[in-house]
Design goal:
The chain is of the alpha/beta class and 157 residues long. Helices cover 51% and strands 13% of the residues.
Length: 157
């Protein structure tokens, strides 16, 4: 599959509509210091399921939501570790919509990796790499679609 086709497939699924259902693809681990409500935890779990279904993830992964960058070894806002099959998202003082966007971005990278679309060595700087552009487009699109499905006021607050 070509890199562009993965993004096209995702956009087609969102255009046609995809039902949010629980999938086994993601185990979620939430740092106790974040104090996410049960409602927010359910929203995040449902969103992870949407990400897995819409991108076509085939393997099982772990999603760590953290309040501490140093302890989690996150330099930016999120990181994807292919070998360990996990994503880590820094959440302290970030809006729910922004956390969800980071989750979707990293989930898209997981699918890119499953399809062997991520080169071992990046020839361009991170911000100029088409792999990053596509993950950013996917992240924003998934958050927008999810907010429309569950209610914008639940996501953008």
């Amino acid at each position: 599959m070509e890199r562009e086709q993965l993004l096209k497939n995702l956009m087609t699924k969102l255009k046609d509509g995809i039902e949010i259902e629980k999938t086994p693809n993601f185990s979620i681990f939430i740092d106790k210091d974040l104090n996410f409500s049960k409602v927010d935890q359910k929203i995040i779990q449902d969103f992870l399921s949407l990400c897995a279904l819409s991108t076509g993830l085939e393997k099982d992964y772990k999603c760590f939501l953290t309040a501490n960058r140093e302890r989690s070894r996150i330099v930016t806002t999120a990181v994807c570790t292919f070998g360990e099959k996990r994503i880590k998202i820094y959440c302290r003082e970030r809006s729910l919509a922004d956390v969800l966007r980071s989750i979707a971005h990293e989930a898209f990278h997981l699918r890119q990796h499953e399809l062997d679309l991520v080169p071992r060595q990046m020839s361009k700087p991170h911000h100029l790499n088409p792999i990053e552009w596509q993950a950013s487009i996917a992240g924003g699109s998934l958050v927008s679609y999810f907010a429309q499905k569950v209610g914008r006021n639940k996501i953008y607050r």
